[in-house]
Design goal:
- The chain has 190 residues and is of the alpha/beta class.
- The chain has one domain: 3-Layer(aba) Sandwich (Rossmann fold), CATH 3.40.50.300.
- It has helices at residues 14-25, 32-41, 45-55, 62-70, 73-76, 91-103, 118-132, 140-154, 156-163, 176-189, and strands at 2-7, 28-31, 81-85, 110-115, 167-171.
- It has a five-stranded parallel sheet.
- The two termini are 12 Å apart.
- The structure holds adenosine monophosphate (AMP).
Amino acid sequence: MIHLILFGPPGAGKGTQAQSLVDYFKFMHISTGDLLRGEIAAKTELGLEAKRFIDAGELVPDETVIGMIKNLLDRICTVPGVIYDGFPRTVAQAIALDTMLTSCKEGITALLSLEVPHDELVKRLLLRGESSGRTDDADVATIENRITVYGQKTQPLIDYYTKLKKYHPIEGVGSVEEISARLISKVKSL
Ligand code: AMP
């Protein structure tokens, strides 16, 4: 079975490209950001707790996100393919995911990393904030904090998956279709 991590800084296009890959390969799509926004909309205790971190541009605590993935493990272990979008975001989450997948004799196939320059990220996020109403895309300070947090806590995953020979950089600038085509051809070559 195939387990792909779609990786990159905020604004790299993970959500859009995850959808392209899902449409093409019919894999299961797991976006921890979408799951958290669902909890917020449903006003659950988890959602209210998570909102404070999200609005500040910080990461939600590892145990919360890992718990959400654990709840999906029965499906993760039985479908033909999964695309992880926005997860893992810390080394602790990556280790937890490896352990969960090992428990059903599965493992990560590849990490596809969308590479986009810093200024382009800020531009895209501000534009998205205007149309989506996402509170964490609304101002430059929160956006910059998310990019800083990405550098400190999430970027170390590149080393982690490079050592496992699973890191694949993908040029993340161009039209949505061009980037989808690069990703699809990479997945087919794996
Ligand atoms: P996203 O939709 O992936 O950009 O996620 C939006 C926000 O949700 C992030 O800025 C984090 O605050 C939170 N979040 C999403 N996924 C994770 C994760 N794997 N670990 C920690 N926080 C997360």
